[in-house]
């Protein structure tokens, strides 16, 4: 993402090298990372920040306007022409305050408005919080791959797929 997006409480922008400490608070937290992969150490966080977030422009930083702190990592990646995968991690200190919804909705709106996306999709093994957010964003279930991947404890886990088509997004906008 190369666009600066502003919401009521957030600025979504490209990552910078100065974001390493804030990103480590997110990716280094085992509770935040439990449904994805093992928590990162600081070295791995810095490498990921420089190689993927900055080097490949692979993700955006969600910055809390008031504190200027990076509180979220937002992925928006074109996997096929006009089809985008999204993902997110929010600093655990900011959970249950609507920041994930606010950031993800803004990025979805950006994808459909600015990038002319046909579809935005996400996947997760978290059948409660992440699936709940996907539904709140208007995404529809596209299926479950049973025992598709392993969780951080090495147990097999189902993988839930959700997606939102542009025409569905337009209907949601018209209803609001």
What does the radius of gyration come to?
16 Å
Identify the strand order in the major beta sheet. 1-2-3-4-5-6-8-7
What's the number of helices?
6
Largest sheet: 8 strands, mixed
What's the rounded overall pLDDT mean?
95
Helical residue percent band: 25-40%
Order of helices and strands: EEHHHEEEHEHEEH
Runs with pLDDT <50, length 5+? none
* Strand content range: 25-35%
- Global morphology: globular
Count of DSSP strands:
8
End-to-end CA span: 26 Å
Summing up helix and strand content along with how strands pair, one would put the structural category as alpha+beta
Q: Please, could you describe this protein's structure?
A:
With 176 residues, the chain is of the alpha+beta class. It is built from six helices and eight strands. Strands 1-2-3-4-5-6-8-7 form an eight-stranded mixed beta sheet, with helices on both faces. A hairpin with a 3-residue loop joins strand 1 (5-6) and strand 2 (10-14). Helix 1 crosses helix 3. It is globular, with a radius of gyration of 16 Å. The two termini are 26 Å apart.
Concise account of the structure shown:
The chain has 176 residues and is an alpha+beta fold.
Q: How are the SSEs ordered, and which strands pair?
A:
Elements: E1 5-6, E2 10-14, H1 20-27, H2 30-33, H3 42-54, E3 59-64, E4 70-80, E5 83-90, H4 99-113, E6 119-124, H5 129-136, E7 140-150, E8 156-165, H6 166-175
Parallel strand pairs: 5-6
Antiparallel strand pairs: 1-2, 2-3, 3-4, 4-5, 6-8, 7-8
């Amino acid at each position: 993402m190369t666009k600066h997006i502003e919401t009521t409480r957030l600025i979504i922008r490209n990552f910078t090298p100065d974001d390493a400490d804030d990103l480590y608070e997110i990716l280094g937290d085992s509770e935040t990372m439990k449904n994805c992969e093992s928590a990162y150490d600081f070295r791995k966080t810095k490498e990921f920040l420089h190689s993927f977030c900055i080097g490949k422009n692979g993700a955006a930083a969600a910055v809390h306007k008031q504190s200027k702190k990076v509180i979220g990592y937002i992925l928006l990646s074109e996997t096929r022409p006009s089809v985008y995968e999204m993902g997110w991690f929010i600093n655990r200190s900011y959970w249950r305050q609507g920041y994930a919804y606010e950031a993800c909705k803004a990025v979805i709106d950006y994808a459909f408005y600015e990038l002319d996306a046909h579809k935005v999709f996400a996947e997760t093994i978290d059948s409660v919080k992440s699936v709940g957010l996907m539904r709140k964003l208007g995404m529809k279930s596209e299926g479950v791959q049973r025992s598709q991947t392993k969780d951080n404890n090495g147990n097999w886990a189902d993988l839930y797929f959700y997606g939102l088509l542009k025409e569905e997004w337009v209907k949601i906008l018209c209803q609001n």
